Amino acid sequence: MGTTFAWTFHVPDFSPLRFFSIDRGAQAMSCELTTKYLGLELVSPVVVGACPLNTQPETVRQLVGAGAGAIVLPSMLQEQVVHQQMKSTDPANAIQRSGYQPQQDRYNGGTEVYLQTIARLKEICTVPVIGSLNGSSPGQWLQYAKEIESAGADALEFNLQQAVFDPLETSNDVETRMCELVRQVRELVSIPVAAKISQRYTNLSSMTAQLQRVGVSGLVLFTHLPQWDVSTDRMHWTIHWELSPINTLGGILEGIVRARAGDRTISIAASGGISNAEDSLKSMIAGADVVMITSAVYREGPDVIRDIVDGIVRHLEETQYQSLQAFRDACPTDHVGDEKSVRLEYVDPLTRSDTYFDPTPLVSQQSGDSYGHPN
């Protein structure tokens, strides 16, 4: 048995501090799980999605040891880069005009430390390291993509935030703006670029095709969105971040199917609420090349990656596929048919039964004995 040790995640405010133990003697990854994403060869289809955990070298070492095929750094924010660029020319107004806030640097290390983190991880990491940008408007700040590449990142994930605030801007305008951002970044770097997008598109197949035409190598479906609420005391809307809830895979699967209808060659990463091997297998059957795990890692530590990898291996063995690639080759390639078939898939389950599954049933307030008789 390998030596075990305890370690601590530095978890953001939305999650309590947790402690985990991991075995140094974890079994090496089988080559049967080798897959490709963004043109990169991965030893496993499980990728640790963008989060602050991936800035800590020791944490990354353990995540990779548990079976992660790649890691994605937390996003460098548009506001941080703009602030950095304005400090030397307009220091008095840099913060106000950029939207920068000091806590943003605590999230990802800041513009200078971020590049150092990439370089340091590349020295110790045996799997691809993917940088990340988050923004919504064009500008000189996009040049930071070149710095991410120069620091050694193997690929770049662009988290496209729609930032819709103009009532006169049409959906076509929004999509054109998003694609133009990707095109500009793609022209700045030679490493592959993935677009991380939301579900808020009328025709995801069309958006996929548009992004493919401007040069993206892959899609991440979908970006994690905050929860909106309204304060009854302040009479104002509020935003807060939460871990992705479990049992929310349906929307991700739908998105993958619809994106695949737009392009069957583009790399796709499933992201959002994936927590076990079954979720991962379903995502790949729907058309994903890899699955991104983030919230599950916060909840369970690196062991969840090992469990997912082991579960995928068991499924391949039970179904007698010699490799992950053989399994994916056997998956259907056309989930979406014509209008009639799409309508039938919706109408048939709606009208077939008078009762519907309730995923959140009310818990009875009554107590009873061991035979179920209420007290």
From TrEMBL:
This is Dihydroorotate dehydrogenase 2. GO terms for molecular function: dihydroorotate dehydrogenase activity. Pfam families: DHO_dh. Its cofactor is FMN. NCBIfam families: PRK07565.1. GO terms for cellular component: cytoplasm. Keywords: Flavoprotein, FMN, Oxidoreductase, Pyrimidine biosynthesis. Residues 33-315 form the Dihydroorotate dehydrogenase catalytic domain. One of its GO terms (biological process) is pyrimidine nucleotide biosynthetic process. Pathway: Pyrimidine metabolism; UMP biosynthesis via de novo pathway.
